[in-house]
C-alpha cells in the first residue's frame, strides 16, 4: 500500500506512521509528502526517508484549481493508493476528491460529528463536555463530514488543563491512525 502523506505542521502523526512502518506494525510504503507550509516541522521528520516532497503554498498558485492540479500530478506520478492527511490544514476540492474517490483519509481530534473544524480539541474543552475523542474518516467535500472508519472515546478528567487534554488526544491519535491504516492495508491485500 503506497501512501502520500499530507501535513502542514508538527507532523507527530506522520511520525507515528513512520514509526509503525519501521517497527513492522504497518505494512505500507510512504511514497511522498505534500505540505503547504515551507517551515513545517514535518519536513525535518521525513528528511531521513529521502522521499520526494512537494512544498506547495496555496498563495504560490494562480488559483485553487492550479494548486490542486499540481498536487494531483505530483501524487499520481508515484502511483499512490491513498492520500493520508495528518494535520493538513487545507480543504481539498473536486480535483483531488475525484482523482482519489474514497481514498483520501484524515484524522480529527474529536469524536465526530461533534466538534468539527480547525479547533476540535479546544472547542470540546471549552464546551465543558465530559468526553471527546479521535476519529479517522474518509474525506468528502464537507468539513470533517466523511464516512467514519474508526473512533475512540476519551473521557475528560475535569481536572485536566487544555494542554493535558491535547496530550491525551495526540497519544490516542498516534495509536489509532497507524492501526486503521494497517486494517486498510490488510483488506486491500486480501482483495488482490
Ligand atoms: C492532529 O491533532 C490531527 O488530528 C489534526 O491536526 C493535528 C496534527 O498534529 N488534524 P500533528 O501535526 O500530526 O502533530
Characteristic terms for this protein:
alpha/beta, binds 5-O-phosphono-beta-D-ribofuranosylamine, single chain, 6 helices, 192 residues, seven-stranded mixed beta sheet
Question: What is the 3D form?
Answer: globular
For the largest beta sheet, what order do the strands appear in spatially? 3-2-1-4-5-6-7
Beta-strand content? 15-25%
Rounded Rg = 16 Å
Ions and ligands: 5-O-phosphono-beta-D-ribofuranosylamine
What distance lies between the first and last C-alpha atoms, to the nearest angstrom? 11 Å
Number of helices: 6
Residue windows where pLDDT falls under 50 for at least 5 positions: none
Q: Return the string of H and E elements.
A: EHEHEHEHEHEEH
Say how many strands there are: 7
User: Helical proportion?
Assistant: 25-40%
- Could you report the average pLDDT, rounded to the nearest whole number? 98
The biggest beta sheet reads: 7 strands, mixed
Oligomer state equals single chain
**Helix vs. strand class:** alpha/beta
